[in-house]
Design brief:
Layout lengths: L4 H10 L7 E4 L5 H7 L6 E5 L12 E4 L2 H11 L3 E2 L2 E2 L3 E5 L3 E12 L4 E7 L6 H7 L5 E4 L8 H11 L6 H17 L2 E12 L4 E3 L2 E5 L8 H4 L9 H8 L3 E4 L6 E5 L2 H13 L4 E6 L6 H12 L6 E8 L4 H13 L7 E8 L2 H11 L3 E4 L2 H13 L2
Parallel strand pairs: 14-15, 14-16, 16-17, 17-18
Antiparallel strand pairs: 1-6, 2-3, 2-6, 4-5, 7-8, 7-10, 8-9, 10-11, 10-12, 13-15
The structure holds guanosine-5'-diphosphate (GDP) and manganese (II) ion.
Length: 385
């Protein structure tokens, strides 16, 4: 889960990483008063709150000299679209006078199997450009989880990139705080860009990004509470409410795949792709699904207008095939997939009963054999052959 900037700011504030003073604006009413009442010093910076970077270049970061000017800009920026993300909230902050912009992040690096510290004294909006044209200005240092942030790590990162060492102690302190946050909050990424060197010397986080591992959300009520403010896929939300995992795959795909296990789900997606077809979404049913739950899952899949074909692939162990068949019939009887295709492949417990249920129902559910066989069936049916 990717946090919004102001949500990341509350975390950084908790770890005493210096941030700018600011307020969140979520409506166009009384904006000038709200900004005045917040006691912010002018000029201010107004930033669109979206789960995507590069806002500055997309017109999502603006400056204002007075509360009135800020209110006018807020009016223009609320609801603005930044590369497909709508900004329902804005963050208004005291503009910081700065000398230079640094880049700092810690990410979970699968290659070194460690938290990876990335630092550059050439941060800011052109960090991607820096990576291309001056790779020597970017230090990447794996952090040994047993040793944590050692002095030599910071020295190395600054020496390699030619950063001004007078800020070494401050940088080390910031990295230590960020590193603690990285672990405490089960993050995949914590990033500050820019980490600005202020006119008066202090380091300030001007823009924070935090990406939390979804699997840790049950342990993090404060982060879970942030979720309400995020722009989420409606089917992901709907599925989560009933404890299914709905995974959007390819926007241009038209096939929905559901299975009782992520491994089989991936095999199905692989084989469908190999046959030159695209999967729009996948849904993990988990174990022991009842007919009602299967019907609910089919309904969620078909509520996605892009999907013309749903493929259910079941290995019947704890999940019984007859329950799955009943669920498929329940959904089709309610006309969930009217005019669309439902293909069912089952193996295991009560397979014969399941086939009988489908045959006797007279409903348009196609039974297929084996995964490769099912993929051929999907191909044929969608070709209208
Ligand atoms: P991003 O484009 O989504 O990464 O948005 P940022 O919040 O990083 O802002 C983009 C750029 O705006 C920064 O790299 C800075 O150059 C500039 N900026 C943002 N806030 C301030 C501020 O308070 N003071 C100054 N001087 N520049 C700022
Ligand atoms: Mn930024």
């Amino acid at each position: 889960m990717k946090l919004l900037e102001y949500q990341a700011n509350t975390l950084m504030d908790k770890y005493a990483i210096p941030i700018q003073k600011g307020i969140v604006i979520d409506s166009t009413e009384g904006t000038a008063e709200k900004i005045k009442n917040a006691g912010l010093k002018f000029p201010v910076v107004i930033k669109a709150q979206v789960q995507i970077g590069g806002r500055g270049k997309a017109g999502g970061v603006k400056f204002a000299g007075t509360a009135e000017e800020a209110a006018k800009l807020c009016g223009e920026m609320l609801g603005m679209d930044i590369r497909g993300f709508k900004s329902n909230e804005l963050l208004v902050l005291e503009k910081k006078d700065i000398k230079t912009e640094w880049y700092l992040s810690i990410m979970l690096d699968r290659y070194s199997k460690a938290p990876l510290l990335i630092f550059s004294p050439l941060g800011g909006m052109d960090i991607e450009e820096t990576a291309k044209t001056s790779p020597e200005k970017i230090a990447r240092v794996p952090l040994d989880p047993l040793r944590g942030v050692q002095d030599y790590v910071i020295s190395y990162a600054m020496d390699k990139t030619g950063a001004d060492k007078q800020y070494k102690d401050q940088l080390k302190e910031t990295v230590e705080k960020l590193y603690r946050m990285f672990f405490d909050y089960y993050t995949m990424l914590v990033e500050i860009n820019p980490l600005a060197v202020g006119e008066n010397g202090g380091l300030v986080a001007l823009d924070g990004k935090v990406e939390v591992d979804d699997n840790a959300l049950p342990l993090l009520p404060d982060i879970t509470a942030f979720r309400d403010k995020l722009q989420e896929d409606p089917q992901v939300v709907e599925a989560r409410k009933v404890n299914f995992l709905f995974i959007p795959v390819e926007e241009s795909g038209a096939i929905g795949v559901m299975s009782n296990g992520s491994g089989m789900l991936m095999s199905c997606i692989d084989l469908i792709s190999k046959k030159g077809m695209k999967v729009h979404a996948a849904l993990d049913l988990g174990g022991g699904a009842t007919s009602e739950r299967i019907a609910e899952a089919v309904r969620i899949m078909f509520s996605r207008p892009q999907i013309d074909t749903v493929f259910i692939c079941i290995f019947g162990g704890i999940t019984r095939c007859d329950e799955v068949a009943k669920g498929a019939c329940l959904a089709m009887a309610q006309k969930e997939g009217a005019g669309k295709n439902l293909i069912l492949r089952m193996e295991g417990t009560n397979k014969e009963e399941a086939a009988k249920i489908i045959a006797e129902s007279g409903l348009p559910v196609t039974i297929a054999e084996g995964i490769p066989g099912s993929v051929d069936t999907i191909y044929r049916i969608r070709k209208g052959a």
